[in-house]
Structures are given as structure tokens and as C-alpha cells.
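Project standup — Tuesday

K.O.: blocked on the structure for the chain from last sprint. Re-posting the sequence here as requested.
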Amino acid sequence: MKMLVGGLTAGLGFGVVAGLVAAGTSRHGVPDAPVAVFLWTAFGEIPALAMTTGWAFAGLVVCLAWMSASPGTGAVIGALVLPAAHAAFSVTATAAGGDGGLLTEWLFVAWLVGGLLGAATGWVRRTLVPATG
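H.V.: unblocked you, prediction finished:
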């Protein structure tokens, strides 16, 4: 139960931070000087791309499911964390004035992919990594 609550908290937190970063990447007001464009790209767009791509959300599920060490628990964690992270991202980005994406269309996909990714990660952890302790 602690793993599930911690995973949901991590998913919601990651989604909120990613939504805020994505909403803050507008170049409105950034001068066209080469130094300003470079700094904006280095400190604005690159972190936004790193946090808002699918692999970042998938990495969150993999890390949490890896700690579960069971395909069943990993599937439950993935099926709950990925939709929670996506919903938090979408709502936060939209509320902050950015593009939150398609919330309802992606929730089912996030649930399905999160469950499969969590189950696969739990299976890999259980079968390929020897038990310690």
C-alpha cells in the first residue's frame, strides 16, 4: 500500500512539474539576440523537452515498478501512476496557459501502456535479477 501511495504521489508530482515546465516554454518576450536565444534554448526548451516526452513518463513507471519486484504489483502501479501523471500534466499545463494535450484520449492509452510497462518491468526484475536477502 505504501508503494502505491508513494507511486501515485510521485506520478502526480512529476506531472505537475512537467506541466509547469511545458507551460513556461513560450518564447514570448525573449529577444532575438543570439545569446538570449541560446540561453532560452539551453535553460528553457531542453528541460521542457526532457520532461514532457513519453520516455520521461515511461521512465517514472519503470523506476516505480522496478521497486515493486513483482509483475502484478508492477502492473497495478503502472496502470495507476501513468494516467495520474498524464492527468496532472494536462491539467497543470492547461491551467498555466500552455498546451495540455488531449486528456481524455490519452488516459486510456496511459492506463493500458502503464499496466503493460509495469508488468514487464516487474517480470524482468523478478526473473533476471537474483533475489537478495
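K.O.: great, moving the ticket to review. Helices lie at 2-23, 34-52, 54-68, 71-95, 103-128. The CA atoms of residues 3 and 99 lie 31 Å apart.
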